[in-house]
Amino acid sequence: MVELQKTFRERLVDFTFYCKERQFMLSPQQTREAFEISRRGFMLDRKLFHYSLKSIYCTRKEHFDRFDEMFDRFWSRYYNELLEPREIKVKPKKKKSTSSSIIFMGAEFNNPHKEEKKEAKQTKGANQTVRLRMTDFSKVDVEDKQRLEELAEELFHQMSMRFKRRLKNAKTGRIDIRKTVRKNVPRGGIMLDLAYKKKRKEKRKVVFLLDISGSMDTYSFYLLKYILVLKRYFKTLEFFTFSTELTHITPMLRENNESEILKQIGSEVTTWSSGTKIGDCLTTFLSDYGSKFLSQKHIVVILSDGLETGNVAQLREAVRTIRRKCKTLVWLNPLKGMEGYQPIQKGMVNVMPHLDAFESAHNLDSLMKLEKLLMDV
């Protein structure tokens, strides 16, 4: 068998586990179909292979929305290697077990050494996941950066799915006579099971204001990805960035492809890593957008370290006005995650009395804990 083909089959197994870890529900039949298209040589044409796998693996809308980015992230390196000139060695054909494929499809093997290795690998992976979840974004090593981004994507997607499940119809409300009758027809019309009119829980409206000044550099990227996931849940999500100027980001969120969204934001927002004038930017938000995006149905979330370099009195007045006009005002400060931190900066001292919640946002674990806060407010 050609060495390149062997490598490809192993990578296909890894890619399928990669998808399953990200909530893709893949059956043995789907995995067999994936191996069949690779056997027929579809993988030699990247575009054909991409869309073939997409048609097999994607069964829900959220799967279709995420698959392109996942495919590119996983397979780009392989296809780049494929284009490089290399010597292909053909090994003698010999019988061997296809345990990786069969295990992948659900069969069991009694090999204690393999089980021990698998258990050790899982333990190591679990320890790494816990460590990365607890690591401050500003202290992430270069070698951990990609794994942290993948873990963030996975955790944020799981959070999004939990949000959606909570919005499903609850078994409450008045009895639905028509559905009850239909449901009990097989029982001769005897009303044994009652059907209820289901009331859908209304999605909340939220406004995010993200500080992208120089002091927030190491946190802004992960907070941005967090907001992009939340936009799938909230009924209306308005997103602004600020530093020395305020920028309305919401019109850029219409694309389904996250990579395209990030690229557009990067090209159109020119104030990344600049100074910090929080009060001035919040005042601009109130005058230009306050009448449209502030009401007693709105949650306002400000993500900033509070290191104001502008007028502190202006900041205090802007925050007080926002709190008066919205339902809930939350301030997320990455510095709160540091040991011994106290909100003694002039900016934070002036805004603290007007906040409903003051939480950290310095690592993945702190962001995941915000889920309950955003659901309960």
Question: What labels would you give this structure?
Answer:
single chain; 377 residues; alpha/beta; Rossmann fold; 3 domains; six-stranded mixed β-sheet; 6 strands; disordered N terminus
Strand share of the residues?
5-15%
Order of helices and strands: HHHHHHHHEHEEHHEHEHEH
* CATH level-two architecture of the largest domain: 3-Layer(aba) Sandwich
Average pLDDT, to the nearest integer?
A: 77
Number of strands: 6
What is the number of domains?
A: 3
End-to-end distance, in Å?
Answer: 60 Å
- What's the CATH superfamily of the largest domain, by name? von Willebrand factor, type A domain
Task: Determine the fraction of residues in helical runs and give it as a percent range.
Answer: 40-55%
CATH topology of the largest domain: Rossmann fold
Task: Explain this structure.
The chain has 377 residues and is α/β, with parallel strands linked by helices. The chain folds into three domains: 3-87; 169-202, no CATH class; 205-376, 3-Layer(aba) Sandwich (Rossmann fold). The protein has 14 helices and six strands. Helix 2 (28-39) packs antiparallel against helix 3, helix 3 (46-57) packs antiparallel against helix 4 (61-83) and helix 7 packs parallel to helix 14 (364-376). The radius of gyration is 26 Å and the shape is globular. The model is unreliable at 1-5, 85-91, 95-110 and 112-124 (pLDDT under 50).
